[in-house]
Amino acid sequence: MNKPLTPNTEQVNRSFTNRIIILGIIMLIGLSGLVFRYGYLQVYAHDQYTTQADNNRIKLISAPPSRGYIYDRNGVILADNQPVFTAMLSPDGVTDPERTLNLLAPIFELTESDITDILARLSKSKSDPVTIKIDLTDAQLAQFSERKPFFRGVTIQSKLTRSYPYDELFAHVIGYVGRINDKETKRIDKDLYAGTDLIGKIGIEDYYEDILLGQPGYQSVETDAYGNIIRQLDTKPPVAGNDITLTLDYGLQKVAQQQLDGRRGAIVAIDPNNGDILAFVSNPSYDPNPFISGISFRDYGDLRDDIDQPLYNRALQGMYPPASTIKPFEGLGALHYGLREWETSIYDPGYFSLPGDSHRFRDWKRGGHGSVDLKKSVVMSVDTYYYKLAYEMGIQRLHDWMIRFGFGERTGIDLPNEKTGIMPSPKWKKDTYDKEWLPGETISVSIGQGYFLATPLQVANATAMTASKGQHLTPHLLKSSNGAADVDIISKPDGKIEYNGNPSDWLRMHDTMESVIKNGTG
């Protein structure tokens, strides 16, 4: 006989039943939530999550263009592109970049400064890979390959980088490329430099950066969970930069450097027919190749502090008293203003004094040259002749004549950072020193001294304009360009120096200048 349920048993059963009902309700709510969430993901948010999945699986990789080659006038390559292995780090593939770089440091020989620089570039990069190290050695490649599974987001790519086969011979004219720095990052078009680490820093590489650079393309690729490329989906090929041919002649450049024989100096050779620069040497020079991947602070410091200043472009930026090199141009000024004829002679006792002043401006030859006409004044470099001439001409007319030959202003050469030199005048002195011009200062200027300063390029160009019978020349290095970008080419004189004398004076001055070398002070 069954015993009737006690109140306690009934309560237990009721509690158990309630729990089952509550659990069922919870399970029903949970299942409903799952069904709702599943429906939301599959229907409402399908496009959004499909896009995110594709972004994780499909990547757009920038394809940098090949930088344009640089040749001399005879086809000798002066700036080449060489394939090198480069270590790259993808920002979206690394959770702790600093830790990764510290682990890579012994493999790629990264310094603390290198790591700081890479982290700074990473912070500014949205998704484009950042260069860790350019031109990896075989040993570095082998060490990385052994440890590659531990470095997710780090890849090795084959890239083209610049190479200068003649080292220091063309450094001051070709210049070099280097890594894009913070200042440059703010001014460049980032789309144009997508996938590119290098930019022209100085010289031709800088001046013609726009046409040498080219246009980047891209590759759309599918990757696995580790960032490895599985297959290529789409591509837009890059457009290579223009190849350019310069007016320089490799053989003449080499001879010019040899003539300096290790001494400080500069040599510029210009074709007087059109302004083509055939040689452009500043000595001593330096090897530009270490600057491409980043020269060490120590090596750069050695170059910067070298007493011979190998980084200094003497031909373009050195401002020196032009001395007696200006006498042919000044002599033509005497004919232009009608102050002298070729046969007009003055007597040179070896000195000149301003009227009412006992101070003597000495000639280089003690005792003087006696009777001196224009030709003899140039051939024997007679200072006294030009003392008297400048006194009669006056500093203003002397200034106005000499600037026609390009003194005191940039020549317009296709190189950055050209210096203007100084062709002084009363206005220049007032603006510069807030002082009046003194008569004795004109005498100093007449022989290329005093305030008068010129670059070797300016002297060479003035000489070329004299050789071209007064044609105005803009010295230039670009001879031709081949590629997608358009560029203006200078191929002839762009004007003529205003001259009031006899046109045959130019030829007579040519003969006079030749005599300087044959039997004069040359």
Describe this structure in words.
The protein is an alpha+beta fold and 522 residues long. It has three domains: 59-165 and 176-243, Penicillin-binding protein 2a (Domain 2) (Alpha-Beta Complex), CATH 3.90.1310; 250-314, no CATH class; 318-475 and 483-519, Beta-lactamase (3-Layer(aba) Sandwich). It is 40% helix and 18% strand. It is built from 21 helices and 19 strands. The strands form seven sheets. Strands 2, 3, 4, 5, 10 and 18 form a six-stranded mixed sheet that branches. The chain has a three-stranded antiparallel sheet with strand order 1-8-9. A two-stranded antiparallel ribbon has the order 6-7. β11 (265-270) and β12 (277-283) form a beta hairpin.
Summarize the structure.
This protein is of the alpha+beta class. It has helices spanning 7-44, 46-57, 97-108, 112-124, 138-147, 171-174, 182-187, 203-207, 209-213, 250-260, 290-293, 297-305, 314-317, 327-336, 374-379, 383-393, 395-402, 426-433, 439-446, 456-467, 505-519; strands at residues 58-63, 70-71, 77-89, 130-133, 154-163, 176-179, 198-202, 217-223, 229-236, 243-246, 265-270, 277-283, 346-348, 351-352, 361-362, 370-372, 471-472, 478-482, 495-496. The strands form seven sheets. Strands 2, 3, 4, 5, 10 and 18 form a six-stranded mixed β-sheet that branches.
